[in-house]
Every structure is written in C-alpha cells, then in structure tokens.
Amino acid sequence: MSYLIEGKTGTWEIVVGLEVHAQIISQSKLFSGASTKFGGEPNSQVSLVDAAFPGMLPVINRECVAQAVRTGLGLNARINLQSRFDRKNYFYADLPQGYQISQFEHPIVGEGSIEIELANGETRQIGITRLHMEQDAGKLLHDQDPTRSFVDLNRSGVALMEIVSEPDIRAPEEAGAYLRKLRQILRYLGTCDGNMDEGSMRADVNVSVRKAGEPFRTRCEIKNVNSIRFVMQAIEAEAARQVEIWENGGEVDQETRLFDPSRGETRTMRSKEDAHDYRYFPDPDLLPLVIEQAWVDGLKAELPELPDAKRARFQTDYGVPFYDAGVLVAEQSVADFFETVAKGRDGKLAVTWVTGDLFAALNRTSRTIENSPVSAESLGKMLDLIADGTINGKIAKEVFEDMVETGESPDAIVEKKGLRQVTDTGVIDTAIDAIMAKHADKVAEYRSGKDKLFGFFVGQVMKETKGKANPALVNEALKGKLDA
Amino acid sequence: MLTGLTLTQAREGLAARKFSARELAKAHLDAIARLNPKLNAYITVIPEADVLAAADAADARYAAGTARAMEGLPVGVKDLFCTKGVKTTAASKILANFVPPYESTVTARLLDAGSVFVGKTNLDEFAMGSANITSAFGSVLNPWQRNGEETVALVPGGSSGGSAAAVAAGLALAATGTDTGGSIRQPAAFCGIVGLKPTYGRCSRWGTIAYASSLDQAGPMTRTVADAGLMLEAMAGFDEKDSTSSNRPVPAFAQAVGKSVKGLRVGIPAEYRAPGLSPEISAMWEQGIAWLREAGCEIVDVSLPHTKYGLATYYIIAPAECSSNLARYDGIRFGERKDAATLDGVYELTRAEGFGEEVRNRILMGTYVLSAGYYDAYYLKAQKVRTLIKRDFVQAFEQVDVLLTPTAPSAAFAQGENMADPVQMYLNDIFTVPASMAGVPALSVPVGLDAKGLPLGLQIIGRHFDEETVLSVGGALEAAAGFAHTPTLHAEAGA
What is the ipTM of this complex? Predict the structure, then answer.
C-alpha cells in the first residue's frame, strides 16, 4: 500500500518517524521516591529531589530500569548491559533542575522492530532505533489566573521511556497502526498504560517528503501530539504543507511545529534561532548503569505472552479464526477473559458468545470487560450446560440475559426457571403425537410432498415444550413419526 | 583557654568534668561576639539559647556515661551544608534567606555524634574561590598578620576561608569544609591549621550545596591531625541518598595517628618543583623530607607527568558541572526572586542580581565548554586528560605509599594582591587540584612560619581510600614540626 501525494512536478511519498514518550508504570519516580499516581492534588507528590532543592541528588529506581528492559525485550530489541545518564540542559518553568536527566549517547535499549498490520491485511516491519529512559517534566497551567502561570511538579521526575522508530513509516495509516501496536505491547507488558488522553503516552512526529528514489529531504518535528487520530491528521497536514513548499520552488526549513486540531494544520513552535543547545554531558551524580545478562534473562523468562504470540496460539489451540483472534487479543483483559471461557471447551462456541452476546451486553449496559456483569467463569459454566445438553442454544440466550440482569449463576437460573432441556423421548413423543393429532391436515400435506412443513412441526413441538425440547431429539423423533 | 583546646583535649576535659559543655560553648560564643565583627568568619551565629541547649544535652550525656565521639564539642559549619532550620546561604545573595527544611547527611552525622554547632562559616560564593573574597556577606580576614604589618589585611584562603579563620582564631574547636580543587587544604595552610580532603565518595554529598559534583568532598578542618581523624570518622560513611557515595566501611581514622611510619615510602613528585617556587617553600619542603626520613621513611623521587595540565582541566570540568548545578537557582521555588514581566525576565534578573561576578564567570565558562561545537575540544578532552592525571597517581602509588608536596605556592597574600587577574588567582590551586582530579585523599599540615611570620603547610597525598596512611604520615610530620604558633587575632590573646 502506498500513500502518495500528486504534485505538479511529480509524485511525492512521505517519510515518517515517531518518537513516543511513554510513562513507565512504577510506584515511584525515576530518581526519587515520590509517588507517580495520576490526578493528585497539585504539588502533593513532589520530593525535595523533584523540586531540585540545594544539595539534592538523584538515586536510580531499579523497577523503572526493569520496566525499560521488559519493553526492550517486547520490542525484540537489543538490551545494552551498559548505558549512561546524561544531563540535557535548558531553562523552563516545568524543569526545576534546569536540566533533564536523560540518556543521550548510550541508551539502555538499542535496535529492534515491531510488526504492524494494515486494514488490507498487509503486514510491515517498522524498525525501532532505540529506547532510552528520561525524567518527565512538571505541568504548567496557564488558565488559572489572568497574569500568572501555575506550576504543578507532581509529574516532574516521573520515568519516561522514549521509543524512537526508524523513519520507516510511509502512510498516516501506518503511523496509526504503529501507535496502536506499540500501545498494545506496552499494555500487555504492564510497562505503560498507554492512556494518551491522560498524557501517559505522547508522540512527536517527524515528517518529511521526497520523490521516489531520492535521499531524505529536510524533516520537521511536530511535538506532543496526544491522540492517534491527531497523529494521522498531523501527518497529512504537514506532508501537504511541505509538498506545496517544494513544488513552489521553496525549501522546507527544519523546525519544530505544533499540530492545531481545530484548524487541521501545523504551525511553528520554535525557529532555528531559538533552537536549544542542550549541552549534553554525562550526569556526574550518577554511576554508569550496568546490568547483568542473568538479570535480563530473568526478566525475559517472566514476560507475559505478547499479542502476536497469543493471537497465533488462539488460532491453533482454540480454532479461533484469524480476524476474531485479532479482536480478542486487542486488549489483554479481553484475551484473558476469552481464554478462561474457552479453556477445555469448544473454542468456536466461546468466540461466538464472547464476541457476540457478551460484547453486545457490555455495550448495552455500558460496562467494560473488567467490570462485566457476567464473569468468565459463569459464562464458561453456561457453555458447559449447553455442551452436556442441560440447555439448548436458544434457552441459553434466555439464561444469558438473566445472568446479565441478575448476576446469578447459570445453574441457579436454569433450576429456578425450570429451563432444563427436555431430553425425555417419551415427553417428546407425547408432544409430537399431540401436534400431529392437532394438525392432521398438515401431516397429510407433508406426507404428500410438502417437505417445507417439517419446520412448522419443529416449531410447534418447541412451542408445546416451551422451547425446552432438545432440538436434535425433536428432529429425530419427528422424522421417525412423520416419515413413517 | 577553653577556646585553645584540641578536640581530643576538650573531650578528655569534658569527660573528666574539668569543665562543662555549657562553659565550653559559652566561651566560644563570647569569642565569636568579640572577634567575628573583625574576622567575619561567620555569616550566621546560632542563637545562644539553641547552642546552650545542645551543650546542656551534652553535659547530661557525659553525666550518664553515654557521651558520643564529638559530644559537646563546638563546631563551625561551612555555610554550604544545608542545616535544618538554620539559614544556609552558600555566601550568595540568591540564597540570602534560604532556610532548609532538611539536614545534610554530613552535618546530621556530626550532630548524631554529639557536636554542638555554633554557627555557619563564611566562604567564597558557592565555593568558588581561593581567598574568600567573593562572599556576598563580605570577605573573611585571616587572623594571621605579617610581622610589623598589622594593618595589612590578609586573605585566609578559600573557599573554606571562614572555617579556617574560625578554627585558627579560637572561634570553633573545629569546622567542616568542602574541597573541590583545594578549598580545604589551601585555607588550612594559609591559616596554620590542619585540613583533610578525603577520598572522593568517602563523605556523602547529600544536602551539601553542589559546585562541581565529580570533585566536591566534605572534610574536617582542625588543629591537629588526630582531631582530623576523629572528625572524619564522624563525618564519613555510605549514604544511599548519594549515588556516588562509597559503601566501604569507615576505618577507625582516629587511631591512625601515632602509628609508626617506619618503612613507608614517601614520593617527591618532580613536577611540583615548579620553576619560580619560592625558596622559602622549597626549604620547608626539604625540611619536611628530612623529618620524614628521620622518622624512618624511605624517600623516593617520582614523576607525575600530567601535573601541568591539572589547572587547565580543572577550570574546564568544574565550571562545566557548576553551570549545570547552578541552573536550579532561578528564584521560582526557593531563594530570592526578582520579579519581571516574563519567565525569562525573572530568570535573567534573579540570576544577574543574585550571583556574584566570579560565579557568573564560571557559569559562563562552563556553558561555553559544553556548548555545541566546543564540547569535544574542551569538556571531553579535559575528562580524558583527567584520566591520565589519575593514572599518574595510581602508577606512582605502585612505587610509594604517599606523596609529599607543598600545599600552596605562597603564604597568605594580602587582599588586593593577585585580584586583578583571575588566572593569577587560579594559580593558588596548582598543588591541590591534581589530587582533586584523581579523587585521592590529601591532607595539609602546618609545619612552620615564613620570614614574615605566616604559616606554611605541607601536603600529604595518599592512595584512594587510604586516609589512614595519610593520617599516620601527617601525624609524624606534625610531631616533628612541633608547630605551636597561634595567630595575632586569637580568642585567647589578651582577652
């Protein structure tokens, strides 16, 4: 697939690289013990280190390092056993130290890749250049006062992973697929919750354009785009802008821009003159970060099953079709729910009930899989009742709706409402005899060739037995009696 | 008399109840009241009530037999250590009214050992200087005077000039200092007292206002080598809040003094015989060599070939780190703020008015050597040369156990001399900087007076984490020199 822009002078392709900042899930910050919880009262989660008081020093949080390593492993990337922290120096109100502790020359994770899937079923490999750890900055609020801006340092010092992709992306759709896949992997690993609307995952988008076969042209960076949809829109807008400049004989300036979603366009944030010189140098308050291969191996052994592997396994172990498997693994909680239902049971039946009836019920009751009115265990039990003939598929629908409503177990509902499937052939025969007697004319019509009437008789018997008769037994017995 | 004791003598006196901690404290507060207006050794004197309360608590411990290592001993604290509830200024306007809500690890350890803090001593602003003439709260006067030149004000050295002057003049029994390029050793030499810069990593830097992170070290400034060992033992130790803190156990430094130095090899680095080294200092150095030889040491000529690059690399690395460390002083969260219409305006005004000239110079130098296009040629290159300087020491210590050198190229100079040219001022650090770059421990011991009656010091440098040998040799030198002089301006002089 390709995303091409037609211009007067020829056809342009787009070159996109994404730098994703992902907040690490951890109890405390990267270099201080303050809490990382979202939504606290302003400046209630700030240690002296975070506020950069005189004499304060950073101390590395081991769990944050573990999370970064887990992420690197999940991205099929090289883990660098030796890495280093550097200071990135600049002044801003959300940066108490006057520098950010980051990793410049020697990041903890090197090259890797992830596979993305496009709408037409095509898959592509997108390269990862590196992943490094750095401190997040605080938050500025400009709307609390007419003349002053307020600073909330709760976020200052929270651990971030900066994940840099190779400039392998060639279409807005690919960028969306990449972000969705990356987010999915991070959530599976438990290293980042990927909530772009809370700001725990943000993307800087690097865009350039070129004609096929050319080397790369100048790129612009669009900073802090906070939704996947906006990323795709920003790419379109920026690529169009750049093509127009080149087409008109101009030159694209390397600059940092912001995306304005209300206007659907990008605008300059910083000109080259205002560009920062960060004066990177190794942070003398920290030792080089040296980790053992054995420790990395231990982390690897404990990694959860990742989406691609889980999807493949659902297909082989449970016979789940490819598309449905993709739906089920989109969120780990859904996949786990499904697996609890499907384990030791008919996989295809489980798929139908989970992706059909359960999803519909969740939608209808505005619930999520995490607070589903029907637990996976309950749903599984219901499938057992179908499998052992206690209830048929139709009755199961009624039982399921009751489960959604009351939260009761399927067994209890079946007992209470007397929904047990009728398998007593004597009862079925009696019902059939009654129907045949009542509709002797239709019997005659059937026997003289109107085969379609068979369905009528099935319906009548089911009605007679209040839907509880075992359909297979009804069919068998009816055939026996009608065709006699 | 009480203000003329050593830590060791004072402790013995207190234990024997010859005098109380309260009397000891009071004597020092009186001395400070009399002499500090002239010397300006203290920026802040701790309120009498608080000092006496601490002294009373010490007396109770002596009575109960639970006295700790520094119990009841009056100590001055360089105003670079954050002291909880006590103003800490770094001798800068930008922190003129900063009262830390926390105690630095080093001073907390001293308090846990029973020390009685009497005040925060003056220093060069943010520890940048070699004469204590850049403080926003006025210069410190060296209590020593040249013979016949009582009106000539001499500098005490820096940056720990206030601590050195206080200990020399009887305004504290001991004081804490910090040493980045010589800031404990050089003022100790200028003021005729003992100063010890331990191995980098020996003392925690947490709560100590940072100047150059890879060089700063806290250390004791005392009247005797034994006192330095005693005080270092109380100050040193692993701190998990400082990632550069060493987790080696703290030896019984106090016991290192008095140990025989027979058979130890003392290296004399050829490169420290700088051309133009004053004949007096040369002679004193030779005297030191003779004393150690008499004590049974073997004297060995050694070479530290990269010595001459020490100052240049120091004056690249230290300003670079300081330019980054001082970025946090922006008036936003603490300290003095100068308001302006824009954020950048607040930063510019606050820092231009809050920082003195020397600090601004070093921040600019540091910013320059880290900037794009210059980083490789300056900062990176300097760090590589630093490795070579360190290697010089490591290799020398394969042949010898300690090195003996002068501490400073001259005795204390007068205020006004050397001041026009900052580079001249920087040359004061020529003998002390290399040991800082290498991170090795170094001690200055007063050994005699020059022709004008001013003290001269010799420096003993040892292996990483081998303060014990340094203290042993220092003790031997001290015993041989028998330096018992006190300055003209002293608490005991004509009360």
Answer: 0.95
Question: How far apart, in whole angstroms, are the C-alpha atoms of residue A422 and residue B134?
Answer: 100
Would you call A286 an interface residue with chain B, using a CB distance cutoff of 8 Å? yes
On whether the CB atoms of residues A61 and A28 are closer than 8 A, the answer is yes
SS3 category, B208: strand
The candidate with the shortest Cα–Cα distance to B156, out of B147, B164, B146, B148, is B164
* Amino acid making up residue A254: Q
B120 is catalytic: no
B34 vs B354: CA distance, rounded Å: 30
Question: How far, in Å, are B50, B128, B344 from residue B348 at the CA level?
Answer: 38, 21, 6
Between CA A36 and CA B460 the distance in angstroms is: 49
Q: What is the pLDDT along chain B (495 residues), one digit of tens a residue?
A: 899 999 999 999 999 999 999 999 999 999 999 999 999 999 999 999 999 999 999 999 999 999 999 999 999 999 999 999 999 999 999 999 999 999 999 999 999 999 999 999 999 999 999 999 999 999 999 999 999 999 999 999 999 999 999 999 999 999 999 999 999 999 999 999 999 999 999 999 999 999 999 999 999 999 999 999 999 999 999 999 999 999 999 999 999 998 999 999 999 999 998 776 888 999 999 999 999 999 999 999 999 999 999 999 999 999 999 999 999 999 999 999 999 999 999 999 999 999 999 999 999 999 999 999 999 999 999 999 999 999 999 999 999 999 999 999 889 999 988 666 666 677 778 899 999 999 999 999 999 999 999 999 999 999 999 999 999 999 999 999 999 999 999 998 854
A52 contacts chain B (CB < 8 A):
yes
Q: Does B79 touch chain A (CB under 8 A)?
A: no
Q: What are the chain A neighbours of B209 within 8 Å (beta carbons)?
A: 54-55
Taking the CA of residue B328 and the nearest CA in chain A, the distance in Å comes to 5
The Cβ-side half-sphere exposure at A75, using a 13 Å CA radius, reads 36
Confirm if A217 and A208 have CB atoms less than 8 A apart. Answer: yes
Angle between helices A453-464 and A425-438 (to 10 degrees): 120
Instruction: Report pTM.
Output: 0.91
Which of the following is catalytic: B159, B160, B163, B323?
Answer: B159
Question: Bridge partners of B146?
Answer: B149
SS3 B184: coil
B245: annotated active-site residue: no
Establish whether the linkage from the previous residue to B159 is cis, with ω within 30° of 0: yes
CA distance A127 to A130: 9
Dist. CA A2–CA A174, nearest whole Å: 10
- Residue A149 is classified by DSSP as -
CB pair distance less than 8 Å for A56 and B244? no
Q: How far apart are CA B5 and CA B187, in angstroms?
A: 20
Q: Which two tokens stand for residue A40?
A: 């606290």
Which one-letter amino acid corresponds to residue A11?
T
The H or E element that residue A134 is part of is strand A123-135
Beta bridge partners of A268: A257
**Mutual orientation of helices A332-342 and A376-387 as an angle, nearest 10°?**
30
